[in-house]
Specification:
- It is built from 13 helices and twelve strands.
- The protein is an alpha/beta fold.
- The chain has one domain: Type I PLP-dependent aspartate aminotransferase-like (Major domain) (Aspartate Aminotransferase, domain 2).
- The strands form three sheets. The chain has a seven-stranded mixed β-sheet with strand order 1-9-8-5-4-2-3, with helices on both faces.
- Helix 3 packs parallel to helix 9.
- The mean pLDDT is 96.
- This is DegT/DnrJ/EryC1/StrS aminotransferase.
- Belongs to the DegT/DnrJ/EryC1 family.
């Protein structure tokens, strides 16, 4: 690792929420003020409007807003009646929320390896994991493909395996909302989709938030019941176990304004990724996007040989260039999840990637001067 160059320049934001805030300006203030004036802080008109616009954007029949991406995942499992003895298949190279909700309903998470190029669920490993689950006496019930770092999973292969094995498909597009697979937006695949509006996400609110997408008309009233304490005809009749899973109206109002510029931001992210790819492909492994997909670039994640990654992070930090590692520990190695079964080969790709990946600054407001600083710092640190 080469010596770094001292710089007096201001640190580059890893994700620049403030730049987006400045662009929207008084539109955000006015949207919040409207909610403050009408005082319908729960289930206000902005919530209904947002759900309609999210569904239209994703190409789904229904969007049901909720309190977080994690709660979106949980609501779906609860609505489907997933229970003890059921197996839910999750990639191991993901944020913990993907599998966290499975034991909430008493089911068993079964971990699946990922593909080395896209970081997404490996269909062959999924087939192996299904066999493991059956051998353990579990009932294969749900597969949760994750659109990691912004790129959709291989929905063609995963849907075919799900169909052959009678599995529900719960797409986790917390990092991929706005991307496409075969020209269709995420949110329009599988039996249901969960997404997150955490502030760092490409489409984020000013707190926690999420949504469920589905074309299943019968699932919608069940999801809404789960979201509201399992209510029946009114809030004092409880027909199932539920939660408090609502998205508050202020966050809906903020998301409406952000959704109006989202397409433009997606294009800007793509331009940043293209410049990074062109400038860094000779010094590291840059992200690969399946030709059937587009990425939302929630993270721009490169790979370096084992042992080089952490040195790069330290060198860049000294130059005011932040990095992050998603994820140092795969789910099947996490203390809370290590007792759950996995596809039978030890998930070697997840293990390998955990030691190689590092993410560079990525957002829609990263101008070319800042991009060039990142690129130069990476090349310098890698001796290029």
């Amino acid at each position: 690792m080469n010596s770094h160059v001292k710089t007096d320049a201001a640190p580059i934001p890893f994700i620049d929420v403030a730049a987006q805030r400045a662009r929207l300006g008084t539109r955000i203030d006015d949207a919040v003020a409207r909610v403050l004036n009408h005082c319908r802080f729960v289930n206000g008109p902005e919530v209904t409007e947002l759900e309609q616009k999210l569904a239209a954007f994703a190409g789904a029949k229904h969007a049901i807003s909720c309190s977080s991406g994690t709660d979106a995942l949980a609501m779906i499992l609860m609505a489907w009646g997933v229970k003890p003895g059921d197996a839910v298949f999750c990639p191991s190279f993901t944020f913990c929320a993907t599998a966290e909700v499975v034991p909430w309903v008493g089911a068993t998470a079964v971990f699946v390896d990922v593909l080395e190029d896209t970081f997404n669920m490996d269909p062959r490993s999924l087939e192996a994991a299904i066999k493991v689950a059956k051998d353990k006496g579990l009932t294969p019930k749900v597969v949760v493909p994750v659109d990691l770092f912004g790129q959709p999973a291989d929905m063609d292969a995963i849907q075919a395996i799900a169909d052959a094995n009678g599995l529900k498909v719960l797409c986790d597009t917390a990092q991929g909302f706005g991307a496409t697979w075969n020209g269709k937006r995420t949110g329009s695949f599988g039996d249901a989709t969960a997404t997150s509006f955490f502030p760092a996400k490409p489409l984020g609110c000013f707190g926690d938030g999420g949504a469920v997408f589905t074309d299943d008309d019968d699932l919608v009233p069940v999801l809404k019941s789960v979201r509201e304490h399992g209510q029946g005809v009114d809030k004092y009749e409880n027909v199932r176990i539920g939660m408090t899973g609502r998205l508050d109206t202020i966050q809906a109002a903020i998301l409406l304004e952000k959704l109006s510029i989202f397409e433009d931001e997606i294009a800007a992210r793509q331009r940043v990724a293209e410049r990074y790819n062109a400038a860094l492909a000779d010094v590291c492994t840059v992200p690969a996007v399946d030709p059937r997909a587009t990425s939302i670039w929630a993270q721009y994640t490169i790979r370096l040989p084992h042992g080089v990654r952490d040195g790069l992070g330290a060198a860049l930090q000294k130059e005011g260039v932040p990095t992050a590692v998603y994820y140092r520990i795969p789910m099947h190695r996490q203390p809370a999840y290590a007792h759950f079964p996995a596809a039978g080969n030890g998930l070697p790709v997840c293990e390998k990637l955990a030691g190689e990946v590092i993410s560079l600054p990525m957002h829609a407001y990263l101008d070319e001067a800042a991009q060039d600083r990142v690129i130069a710092a990476v090349r310098r640190a890698l001796g290029a």
